[in-house]
Prior knowledge:
Elements: H1 4-19, E1 26-27, H2 34-38, H3 43-55, E2 65-66, H4 70-75, E3 89-94, H5 100-109, E4 116-121, H6 128-131, H7 133-150
Parallel strand pairs: 3-4
Antiparallel strand pairs: 1-2
Amino acid sequence: MNTIQQHLKEASDARAGEKAGGKILHSGDADMTDEQIAALPFEMYRQGYEYYWRTHAHPGSTFKYTTSSLLDLTRWDATDEIELIEQPLLMIAGSKADRLYMTEEAFAKATGAKDKELFRIDGATHIESYWVPKYVDAAMTKLTAFCARTL
């Protein structure tokens, strides 16, 4: 199994190769079988492959990323300086989302927003909140009311 350190070494080697004029390397695999997708360790990954690659893929998407970009992705944190947000803030997440805890942590860190709300879509996973009509409707109802009140 690959570790983060192994991935970072691969990314570093790829970046060094690019800087030396070599080929840009890509990572990511969209040619997975149903059995391989079913064996993925997290529901978000399984649903993500289904959504992003099978049912809602952009015609120009390759499902790949530059290997060197993993260096930037690894150190990127969406909550860096989140405390600077002073506008009204609505965060929406599925109550069954694998990464709900990340939304809850980000919400707690958004200390500059005095008018803030975390809305959990009851029963929704992360990916389901994108396209399952009852979950999208719940999110849009909340978003519409929030914007009507705060804009």
